[in-house]
Write a structure and sequence with these properties.
single chain; alpha/beta; 4-stranded parallel beta sheet; two-stranded antiparallel ribbon; 26% helix; globular; disordered N terminus
């Protein structure tokens, strides 16, 4: 028995620091919906890596949308094994990746959006779980960003920590 009470933000932070965040234990409200938007054009190998990363997530509270620019390399064929994870997939020529991202935004129903291009992967199977936990406990957050790890062809990795925000924006 603990003598002092801790608030739910402290509990989540403690669990996150100690890698004990397997579920929220009811300490925070449920997060609004999360949309993951993947854009692709003739990058079947990258799309496969992204699909595997998404399918490995323990928390499935998200929708996954793919916008393909009309691939001819079999990119869409490989998605047959990931149908239960996929919320929507559209393939047609577009005006480039930013046009595809905007098409994805128009179709997304999530309150929060992750742009995860083909070839991008989550760090580990608990990434979406941690994102949803943070957003559930901090509903005032409009923008959440984290670190990036670049895997180089040489086998080396470059870690890019998130920068401190220059300003806190609200709309």
């Amino acid at each position: 028995v603990h003598d002092k009470a801790i608030n739910r933000n402290q509990l989540i932070n403690h669990k996150m620091k100690n890698n004990q965040l397997n579920h929220l234990d009811g300490v925070c409200s449920l997060v609004q919906s999360l949309s993951i938007i993947t854009v692709n054009l003739n990058n079947a190998a990258g799309l496969r890596a992204t699909a595997r990363s998404i399918a490995a997530q323990r928390d499935t509270n998200f929708e996954w949308l793919i916008l393909d620019g009309g691939s001819t390399d079999g990119s869409l064929d490989l998605l047959a094994g990931f149908g239960s994870w996929l919320s929507g997939c559209w393939s047609a020529p577009d005006a480039g990746p930013y046009d595809a991202m905007n098409q994805g935004l128009r179709r997304a129903v999530g309150d929060y959006v992750i742009f995860m291009n083909s070839g991008d992967c989550f760090h580990d199977p608990g990434t979406v779980e941690r994102i949803n936990a943070i957003l559930a406990c901090h509903p005032e957050v409009d923008l959440l960003f984290g670190a990036t790890i670049l895997d180089l062809p040489s086998g080396w990795q470059i870690f890019r920590p998130p920068h401190e925000p220059q300003a806190r924006l609200r709309y």
